[in-house]
Amino acid sequence: MSLWTLYFLLLKATLSSFSGLASLPILREDFVVRRPVLTDRQLNTALVIGRTTPGPKGLYVVSLGYYVAGYPGASMAWAALVTPALLVVAMLGVAARFTGDPRVKRMLRTVVIASAGISLSATLPLGLDALTTPLAWVLAGVSLVILLRTEVDTLWVMAGAALVSWAASFVNLTRG
């Protein structure tokens, strides 16, 4: 894949998303399904690298670019990641005039709901790739229930799941 193709595919994903992970379904479709230059496992790894390092939520795009084309790919991914922010600065003056319009508010609400559905369609295959043992399934289910039914911070749920997984590794409960 050429660097320009990589840039424009990543630019398409970052332009059509409104938060860091909203571009995930588009990236999976382009890089795993249509042009199989990545596997779901590599996409998961890029996502973990981007989410565990300091910086913006969409930083995993740079890791994805690195997986596809090394350092030049990471550079093109960074450029694709910052391009929408540079374009938004120019558009802020125009957009401010229309934010009070009820039609614009309905359209924005629709975009948010649609992006949530699209994000779900990409995260399901990635989740299935990550959940490889019965313990992982139990931890995922319990974590989901805790996050949906309580006010416990996500960080504590992740730390608890990591602690349970670590303890289970000593009694060989982590094998499938």
Question: Outline of this structure?
Answer:
By secondary structure, this protein is mainly alpha-helical.
Radius of gyration: 19 Å
Spatial gap, N to C terminus: 37 Å
Proportion of β residues? under 5%
The low-confidence parts are none
Q: Average pLDDT value?
A: 84
Alpha-beta content class: mainly alpha
Rough outline? globular
**How much helix is in the residues?**
over 70%
> In this structure, how is the largest beta sheet organized?
none
Question: What is the overall number of helices?
Answer: 7
Tally of structural domains? 2
Helix/strand order, N-terminal first:
HHHHHHH
Number of strands: 0
Describe the fold and architecture:
This protein is mainly α and 176 residues long. The chain folds into two domains: 3-130, no CATH class; 132-176, no CATH class. Helix content is 77%, strand content 0%. It contains seven helices and no strands. It has helices at residues 3-15, 24-34, 40-52, 60-96, 102-130, 134-149, 154-170. The longest helix is centred in the middle third of the chain and has 37 residues, at 60-96. The radius of gyration is 19 Å and the shape is globular. The two termini are 37 Å apart.
